[in-house]
Amino acid sequence: MKNKQITVTAPLLPPLEEFIPLLEDIWKRKWLTNNGHYHQKLEKALADYLKVPYISLFTNGTLPIMVALQALRITGEVITTPYSFVATTHSLWWNGIKPVFVDIDPTTGNLDPDKIEAAITSKTTAILPVHVYGNPCDTEKIQAIADTYGLKVIYDAAHAFGVEVDGKSIMEAGDMCTLSFHATKTYNTIEGGALVCRDEATKKQIDCLKNFGFSGETTVIAPGINGKMDEVRSAYGLLELKHVDNAIAKRREVAETYRKELNGVEGISFYIDMPNVRHNYSYFPIFVDEMKYGQSRDELYFKMRENYVLGRRYFYPLISEFATYKNLPSSTKSNLPTAHKVADSVICLPMHHEMANIDVLQICNLIKNNYQPHRNWN
Ligand SMILES: *Cc1c(COP(=O)(O)O)cnc(C)c1O
C-alpha cells in the first residue's frame, strides 16, 4: 500500500459552490478593495462572533501587530515571549523597539507573569504577550502589572480565535489584540488578520493607518501603511465563519482521541482543557521527556517523518535564538530556561478538522511503539 502523508494541518475551505455566487456579485459591483461591501460585512460579522465592538480587518496577521504599536505610539523596550512565531518579535523590530524576552510558564507555554516585573526598566512602555496554542494568558495578572507601571498591553491572539474564558471573549483583554487569518490557522481568509481595539476613535485611527494614513481624499495625517483586506477574501471570510464552529468541534474530537490514546505513555505530556475555557484546539503539542520516554524529541520527530507523519516543532528554535535577536541581553539561555526546555521537547501533532480517526490512532500507536524504557543511558 502506498503511504500517504499526514500533514500537521489542512486548510478549512468553504464549499466552492457557496463562494461562486459571491464572486459573481463582486464582479457586478466592480469594487475590489478599500472598505467595500464585503469588507464591512465581515467586520460586523467578526465583531459579533468574537463579541467585541471594534475590529479592523487586515491583509495578514503581522501588520495588525505593527499598526497596534504605531497606534499606541509604543517606543523603547517591550516585554515579550520568545516562545511564539517569529512575526511577534519582528513587529517590534520593524518599529525600532527593543524586544525584552521574559521566560514562560510551562503549564501554558505563555509569558510567565511572575517574571515580568523584574524585566521592567525606565524604557519599558508595553507588554506583548501571546496566547500560545490558544491557551489564555493570565490576563488579570498581566493587566495588574501594566496598571502598576503604566504600560500598554497588546495581545498577539493569532492562535486564539473564538477562545473564551468564563464565557467572556479572550479578545476583551489588553489595550488591543491582534488576529491572524492565515491559511494554516483555525479560521482563515487565505491570508488575513485583524486588530481589535476598545473605542470608535481608535478604530478610526487604525483604519487610517492601514490606508497610508489617509483621512479623506487629500489629507494624510500619519505615516500609514497599506494593510487593507480585499473584497474577495472578505467574502471568503464570511463563508468561513459559517463553518468554523463545526471545524472546531471536529478538532475537539481529534484532541480527545489523542488525549485518550496518549494518556499514560511515560515521558509524553500534553495540555488538558483549562476549567471554564472554551478552547479552539488550534494545535496539539506534545512534550517529550527524553529520560522517561527513552528517545529524544528529534528522534521521535524524525521517526514520525519516516512514517509520513509530518508534525512540526512549533516553537523551536526560540525567537531569541534567531540571528537578529541572539545577541540581545535578554536572549541568554540562563534568562529563558523554561522556554528552552519547552522548545527542545515540543512536537505539534497533526491537528485539523478533516483528520480521520484511523490516522490519529496510527500516530498514537507510532508514539507508543517508539517508547524505549530500557534504553541504556550510559
Ligand atoms: C501566524 C502568526 C502570526 C502572523 O500572522 P500572518 O497572518 O502569517 O502574518 C503572528 N503571530 C503568531 C503567534 C502567529 O502564529
Task: Write a structural description.
This protein has 378 residues and is of the alpha/beta class. The protein is 36% helix and 13% strand. The protein is built from 11 helices and 13 strands. Strands 1-9-8-5-4-2-3 form a 7-stranded mixed beta sheet, sandwiched between helices. β4, α5 and β5 form a beta-alpha-beta unit. α2 packs parallel to α7. The radius of gyration is 21 Å and the shape is globular. The structure holds pyridoxal-5'-phosphate. Pyridoxal-5'-phosphate binds next to α4.
**Largest sheet features:** 7 strands, mixed
Order of neighbouring strands in the sheet with most strands: 1-9-8-5-4-2-3
Structural class: alpha/beta
Helices and strands, in order, run as HHEHEHEEHEEEEEHHEEEHHHEH
Any idea what the radius of gyration is? Answer: 21 Å
Could you say which small molecules are bound to this protein? pyridoxal-5'-phosphate
The portion of residues assigned to helices is 25-40%
- First-residue to last-residue Cα separation: 40 Å
**Beta-strand level of the residues, as a percent range?**
5-15%
Number of strands: 13
Overall shape: globular
DSSP helical segment count: 11
Summary, kept brief:
With 378 residues, this protein is of the alpha/beta class. The chain is 36% helix and 13% strand. A hairpin with a 2-residue loop joins strand 6 (164-165) and strand 7.
